[in-house]
Structure formats: C-alpha cells, structure tokens
Design a protein that fits this description.
Layout: H1 6-16, E1 40-44, E2 47-50, E3 55-58, H2 73-84, H3 94-106, E4 112-116, H4 119-134, E5 138-142, E6 155-156, E7 166-167, H5 174-177, E8 180-183, H6 188-198, E9 202-207, H7 221-234, E10 237-241, H8 253-258, E11 264-267, E12 278-282, H9 284-287, H10 306-319, H11 324-346, E13 351-355, E14 358-362, H12 371-375, H13 379-391, E15 394-395, E16 404-405, H14 412-429
Parallel strand pairs: 3-15, 5-8, 5-9, 9-10, 10-11
Antiparallel strand pairs: 1-2, 2-3, 4-12, 6-7, 11-12, 13-14, 14-16
Helix pairs in contact: 2-10, 3-10, 6-7, 11-14, 13-14
Length: about 425
C-alpha cells in the first residue's frame, strides 16, 4: 500500500539502539497508524522532505509552531543574527522584555508572565502557582486534555464519576496523583457536583478550552458557564492551557475565540517560533507570588533564551499584520469544506471539526464532544487513512487523537492536493 522508505527504516534500526522505541517522543513511533516513522531531512514552506527524498504537504507543522510555514526567511535571519551575539547568557536581556510586551498585545489577560523552555514547564509552574496562591492542593483536569508530562497531570479518572485519580504512567506516586481529580470534558454538571462536594480543597481547574490532544473539540456554553460558576463560588483559579490553541484557534487563543478570561494562561509552540520556549502568566496579583517577589519558586537556566526570543518576536510580529491570521483561517476552512464534501459524496462515517487554523477528521458518525467519543472513533480506519494519505503525499499526525495544523504557506495548490488525497484515502480506507 505504501511507499518504500529504506533510509528511514535503516535510521529507525540505528535509533532503536540508543533511544527507547527509536524516538524522542512516543507518537513519532507511528505505532497508532502502522508503517515506518519517517525521518525528516528538510522542511521548507508547506512541505517536508524525508531522508529517502520523498516530499509531503505537511499538516503537522511541528505540532503547531510552524504557523508561518517552515524555515520562514525572516525567522531564520533573526535566529542567525541573535546567534552571532551569543546563544545563551543566563542574564536578563531586552529581547525578553520585548517578547513579553508582544505576547501581552495578543493576550491582554496576561498582565505579568514568566518565560520557561517548554509547554510542560509552563503548565507545571502554573499549577504550582495556583496551589501556592490558594493554599489548596487539589486540582481538576479533564479526560483527553494533555498538559505535558507533569506527574500531577498524568492521571486518569478513578472508578467513580469523579474520584481522586490514579497514576496514568509508571513512576507517578499515588500520593501525588490523589490530589488530581478528573472529569469528562464538556461535563458542566459533573464539575458543579464535584465542587459542591470538594470545592474548598481545590486550587484550580486546568483545561484545553478548545482541545487539540484528542482532536479539535469545542466546549459547550453550559461547560463554560460551569467554569465561571466554580470560580466565582469557590475561588478556584481557571488555567487555560493554550500551548496548542495560542495564536492557533484565534490570534488571541481560545480565550479570545470563546470570550472567556482565565486567571492564568500557559503558552508554547507558536510563541517560540519553532524554538523551545513556553510562557505562563495571568493576573498580576497571582504572578506576584512567583519568586523573587513571592514564595512560589521557579527558575530555569535557558528561560528567555536569546535565540528563542528572537524567533518568537519575529513570528508574532508577522502574525500581527492585518488579515494575516484570517488568511490562514480561510485556508483551513477551505480544507474543511473539501473534506466535508468528500465525506458527503462518499457517504462516509466521518466528521470534521475545526477551530481557527486547527482541524481534525474523526471517523465517527456523530460530533465528537469528549474523550469517550474520541475513543469510540474508528481508529483502525484512521490508520489505513493515514497510510494512504502518506502514499498520496500528505503528512498527517500519526494518531487519530491529534489536530492538524495549517500554515501561511498552504496555498490553493496545497488545498487541492490535500482534498484530492483525502477523497482517495476515504474511499480506499473504507474497504
């Protein structure tokens, strides 16, 4: 069915000798879709080229950051210029201040912020801050929302509708996991009941307000109302994990898309222009608890790295240009329309869900509203669909639980390629 990838296969065999599974992040192993994971040699614009010389329209976009397309010249030049002046200082720089001011232009709710080196660091630090500011240990998360490999957040639901969690990974102490409670996404009534029972113990609710880690799922109005209610009634902080949705669901993130102001926000991916960086921030009174102003400790040798800030500032300034984001959103809508037309024409059991420049095709006969719905999708068919799309020259996320990401470099030729490939893959994967 697929193309031959002898160089990728050979590299995988080498990699397995020195890395677990041959990869540095589990989803890259292609175990959910089958086949050989591709080793990439080059990325430019809307395309990836693998080590075997095969070229693909890219819909992974390095899992979100490549909103301008790969190797955008302005960003590359900014990184090179910064590198000439030094790659790391471990001291304050003007670029850190500038980047914080640019981020604030997009996210007015972030009155003060701290830079870190990843989205995982951002969510970990935001939760520590919430606990320190409220003097409560409990946190609430939602099934299917992934917030990085933080011990407190690698937790699944217990046996009850809402019980203290159990570790979802080896190496996570049960004593730590017991402070994390898990609910289904979009369960407003469950959230209200949980807080009625345990609200005084709970420091915060953390969520992807528009999900990306189980595919694109939007919150219901009742779910958003429940979040507001528990904040007002119990004083719990609302943390939006916008590592994926920041600058993606909307130029101002999920919070602008949904018109909801969280207490704290976590950013990553796009904010660093493709380099390792994260940001957490929010209300100034909360951020004043962070050392050196307060007692909540957090530090990092590479925080505010000059290469990352150069890439981030350049990327965000380009995104600021009038109608720039809207053009990428329109491209994504065109792909959505093309996929929906192909689904309707072939009478396939599939739905397409989109928010801004993020999009997912689920093999489901109904809208996907939570993790149970996402699990119930036909993931075997997605695996076949993925392999055929790859054969047709389109690189999708190698999991049915992920969002696709569109860039400014996807034009009409790429739209047509993606839609035509999907027509073929929908038809063949149904057999």
């Amino acid at each position: 069915m697929g193309l031959s990838h002898p160089k990728s296969q050979a590299l995988l065999e080498r990699a397995r000798q020195v890395m677990p599974g041959g990869v540095n992040s589990p989803v890259r192993a292609f175990r959910a879709v089958g086949g050989t994971p591709l080793f990439i040699a080059e990325a430019k614009g809307a395309y990836l080229t693998d080590v075997d010389g095969q070229r693909y329209v890219d819909l992974v976009g390095t899992w979100g950051p490549a909103i301008l397309g790969h190797a955008r010249q302005e960003v590359v030049s900014a990184i090179c210029d910064a590198a000439q002046r030094g790659t790391s200082f471990g001291a304050p720089t003007e670029a850190e201040v500038t980047m914080a001011e640019v981020v604030q232009d997009f996210f007015p709710s972030i009155e003060m912020m701290r830079m870190v080196s990843s989205g995982t660091e951002a969510t970990m630090s935001a939760i520590r801050l919430a606990r320190g500011a409220t003097k409560r240990d409990g946190i609430v998360k939602f099934e299917g929302c992934y917030h990085g490999h933080v011990d407190s957040l690698l937790v699944k639901a217990g046996s009850g509708a809402a019980s203290f969690g159990e570790p979802d990974s080896a190496g996570v102490p049960a004593d730590l996991a017991q402070h994390t409670l898990t609910l289904p996404f979009n369960d407003g009534e469950g959230l209200r009941r949980l807080f009625a029972e345990k609200g005084e113990q709970l420091s915060c609710v953390i969520l992807e307000a528009i999900t990306g880690n189980m595919g694109v799922i939007l919150p219901t109005p009742d779910f958003l109302s429940a979040l507001e209610e528990v904040r007002e009634r119990y004083g719990a902080l609302i943390i939006f994990d916008e590592v994926m949705t920041g600058f993606r669901a909307h130029r101002g993130g999920a919070q602008a898309y949904l018109d909801f102001k969280p207490d704290l926000t976590c950013l990553g991916k796009v904010v660093g222009g493709g380099l390792p960086v994260g940001v957490y921030g929010g209300r100034a009174d909360l951020m004043s608890h962070i050392s050196p102003l307060g007692l909540v400790y957090q530090a990092g040798t590479l925080s505010g790295n000059p290469l990352a800030t150069a890439a981030g500032i350049t990327t965000l300034n380009i995104l600021k240009q009038p109608d720039f984001f809207e053009a990428i959103e329109a491209t994504t809508a065109s792909i959505e329309q093309g996929w929906n037309a192909a689904i309707k024409e072939g009478q396939h059991k599939a739905v397409v869900q989109r928010a801004g420049t993020m999009i997912t095709l689920f093999f489901s006969d109904k809208p996907v509203m939570n993790f149970d719905d996402a699990q119930a999708c036909d993931h075997e068919r997605f695996g076949r669909f993925h392999q055929i799309m790859l054969r047709e020259g389109v690189y999708l996320p190698p999991s049915g639980y992920e969002a696709c990401f569109v860039s400014a470099m996807h034009g009409q030729a790429e739209i047509d390629h993606i839609v035509n490939a999907a027509k073929i893959a929908l038809a063949e994967s149904a057999k």
